[in-house]
From TrEMBL:
This is Ribose-5-phosphate isomerase A. The gene is rpiA. It comes from the Bacteria. Substrate binds at residues 26-29, 81-84, 94-97, 121. It catalyses: aldehydo-D-ribose 5-phosphate = D-ribulose 5-phosphate. GO terms for biological process: pentose-phosphate shunt, non-oxidative branch. Its EC number is 5.3.1.6. Catalyzes the reversible conversion of ribose-5-phosphate to ribulose 5-phosphate. The active site is at residue 103.
């Protein structure tokens, strides 16, 4: 599986050109991309990156990839990131690693977003992977009730749990927030659910990435498959 992730990362690297401003994703597949990008930088490629998490920042610094922020540059040419699920419309569930807020800010600031993954992440309908919802700890009970109402209005339901870290304490994002993971099974209308969740006070962000991915690079036993998002 790790080899497949690296193959997808290597294919995405073919789209990187000298002088590009890059969004650098978070997670195991994105880490392969950063390592391969670092090799190209050491060979003379001139790029600059914006990391989507503190973990990615550390990886990029270790690999020698120059970094900046979205305060210092006005847009990104390309973001390369992984995903927890990808549907045929290239809608995504992201946030399994907890970096969904920064990942979405960076993706939205980019001209293009390439999603890299092994082909097990390709699904006919989103929802098998638990949907992360990043929330403010204050007023959590009220926020949970509002989320449940949003689920009901969109025809989905499932158990929600506050994410825990490996040490058993509440997982805290880089932004200082908590994450609720919702086991929804199937999300028939992800765009509608995304809109409903975004309207809730207390919800900082959610893991539904709608209309942000330009293409997906999927690595499987049969090789690499590239899927482009259909224009509306």
């Amino acid at each position: 599986m790790d080899q497949l992730k690296r193959q997808a990362a290597a294919r995405a690297l073919e789209d990187v050109r000298d002088g590009m401003q890059l969004g650098l994703g978070t997670g195991s597949t994105a880490k392969h991309f950063i390592e391969l990008l670092g090799e190209r930088v050491r060979a003379g490629l001139k790029v600059i990156g914006v990391p989507t998490s503190e973990a990615t920042r550390a990886d990029a610094e270790r690999c020698g990839v120059p970094l900046t922020t979205l305060d210092e540059i006005d847009h990104l040419d390309l973001t390369v990131d992984g995903a927890d699920e990808i549907d045929p419309a290239l809608n995504l569930i992201k946030g399994g690693g907890g970096a969904l807020l920064r990942e979405k800010i960076v993706a939205a600031a980019s001209d293009r977003m390439i999603v890299i993954a092994d082909d097990t992440k390709w699904v006919p309908t989103l929802g098998r992977f638990p949907l992360p919802v990043e929330v403010i700890p204050f007023g959590l009970g009220a926020t949970r009730r509002a989320i449940e109402k949003a689920f009901a209005s969109c025809g989905v339901s499932g158990q929600m749990a506050v994410r825990k870290a490996k040490d058993g304490h509440v997982f805290v994002t880089d932004g200082g927030h908590w994450i609720l993971d919702a086991q929804l099974g199937r999300i028939e209308d992800p765009a509608r659910l995304a809109e409903a969740l975004s309207a809730i006070p207390g919800v900082v962000e959610h893991g539904l990435f709608i209309g942000l991915a330009s293409s997906a690079v999927l690595a499987g036993g049969g090789g690499i498959r590239v899927v482009e998002r259909r224009k509306p």
